[in-house]
Amino acid sequence: QVQLVESGGGLVQAGDSLRLSCVASGRTSSTDAMGWFRQAPGKEREFVGVITWSGGNAYYADSVKGRFTISKDNAKITVYLQMNSLEPEDTAVYYCAAGPSNIATLRGSQYKYDYWGQGTQVTVSS
């Protein structure tokens, strides 16, 4: 089992920045891909981006490319989501997820991720 705990959400204004953290614990060696997803009220959960413990590159959804950055600290088993130039449309519950590294997870298929955090709320006011 892998446990994931997100933190860092909050209420900000449009144009502000926010950094989310996701701390992993447990059998983290069984997973490699660490994805970020979000779910806005009344909408389906959508892929934000992903990074792997073994590699250095991150991949992003078009909607956040250029504004969001995913990074990691392998020693702390922590993944970060730096969000800049936030827009009201970014309002959602943000989740981190862990799973194997394969084409599906790296392309953001949420159903291929095995473990999920409880989510953290991000609200962007206009």
Describe this protein's structure:
Strands 2, 4, 5, 6, 9, 10 and 11 form a 7-stranded mixed β-sheet that branches. This protein has a 4-stranded antiparallel β-sheet with strand order 1-3-8-7, with no helix packed on it. Strand 5 and strand 6 form a beta hairpin. The chain contains 1 helix and 11 strands; from the N terminus they run E-E-E-E-E-E-E-E-E-H-E-E. The chain has 126 residues and is mainly beta.
Strand content: over 45%
What string, H for helix and E for strand, traces the elements in order?
EEEEEEEEEHEE
| Overall SS class | mainly beta
Distance between the termini: 40 Å
Rounded mean pLDDT is 95
* Contiguous helical run count: 1
- Give the helix proportion (percent range): under 10%
E-strand count? 11
Low-confidence stretches: none
Largest sheet: 7 strands, mixed
* Radius of gyration of CA atoms, rounded to a whole number: 13 Å
Categorize the overall geometry: globular
Quick description:
This protein is mainly beta. 3% of the residues lie in helices and 51% in strands.
Could you name the key traits of this structure?
1 helix, globular, 126 residues, 3% helix, 4-stranded antiparallel sheet, single chain, 11 strands, 7-stranded mixed sheet
Architecture blueprint of SSEs:
Blueprint: E1 2-7, E2 10-13, E3 18-26, E4 33-39, E5 46-52, E6 58-60, E7 68-73, E8 78-83, E9 92-99, H1 103-106, E10 115-116, E11 120-125
Parallel strand pairs: 2-11
Antiparallel strand pairs: 1-3, 3-8, 4-5, 4-9, 5-6, 7-8, 9-10, 9-11
